Amino acid sequence: MSFTLAIVGRPNVGKSTLFNRLVGKRLALVDDQPGVTRDLREGAARLGDLRFTVIDTAGLEEVTDDSLQGRMRRLTERAVDMADICLFMVDARTGITPTDQVFAEILRRRAKHVIVAANKAEGRAGEDGALEAYSLGLGEPLRLSAEHGEGLGDLLHVLMPLA
Ligand code: GDP
Ligand code: MG
């Protein structure tokens, strides 16, 4: 049985970078039958031996960090409702922001299962931010670097028992 993973979080934390890494060129197949809307991209993901559907909450790019607009909330809620598992991405370099807290609240109320991922954690730059992510109260944060492909083995480990 396969599952659907939604990557959610405020703009610029690295959601699309992870999406692209998980989907690779296979997005081309999905493009023929467009995903849900332009704002939610759907792709066929591969990680180790796992195959699953991944959703990227795209279309948040123009939303500024300090205003959580209704559209951003609705888009995130839609992705959360479609997903079996939510990967809640935060930026390990900037630490937790008030906007992250709003996302955390949406996930606490709505998500079936949440994995917190502190991205941009390559090298030692993200250690403090990753620790700070504990304070979200959504479990132990994974340290990821979507750009450099680090932490994907740990993500696989967390996903495997849930698949
Ligand atoms: P999104 O808005 O959440 O989809 O974020 P993007 O995937 O578009 O990434 C936003 C910016 O963060 C881009 O400039 C990426 O190159 C950068 N980025 C993404 N992942 C990483 C990472 O692991 N480390 C670093 N240092 N930068 C990253
Ligand atoms: Mg994006």
What can be said about this structure in brief?
By secondary structure, the protein is an alpha/beta fold. The protein has helices spanning 15-23, 27-32, 70-82, 98-110, 127-132, 152-159, and strands at 4-8, 40-47, 50-57, 85-91, 114-119, 142-143.
Describe it for me?
The chain has 163 residues and is α/β, with parallel strands linked by helices. The radius of gyration is 14 Å and the shape is globular. Residues 28-36 have low confidence and may be disordered. It has six helices and six strands; from the N terminus they run βααββαβαβαβα. It has a six-stranded mixed β-sheet, sandwiched between helices. The chain starts with a strand and ends with a helix. α5 links the parallel β5 and β6 (142-143). It has helices at 15-23, 27-32, 70-82, 98-110, 127-132, 152-159; strands at residues 4-8, 40-47, 50-57, 85-91, 114-119, 142-143. The structure holds guanosine-5'-diphosphate and magnesium ion.
Taking pLDDT < 50 over at least 5 consecutive residues as the criterion, the unreliable ranges are 28-36
Name the helix and strand elements from N-terminus to C-terminus, one letter apiece: EHHEEHEHEHEH
Strand order of the largest sheet: 2-3-1-4-5-6
Overall radius of gyration: 14 Å
The hetero compounds bound to this protein are: guanosine-5'-diphosphate, magnesium ion
**Largest sheet, strands/sense/barrel:** 6 strands, mixed
Euclidean distance between termini CA atoms: 7 Å
Assembly type: single chain
Strand element count = 6
Specify the overall morphology: globular
Structural class: alpha/beta
Helix content: 25-40%
Number of helices: 6
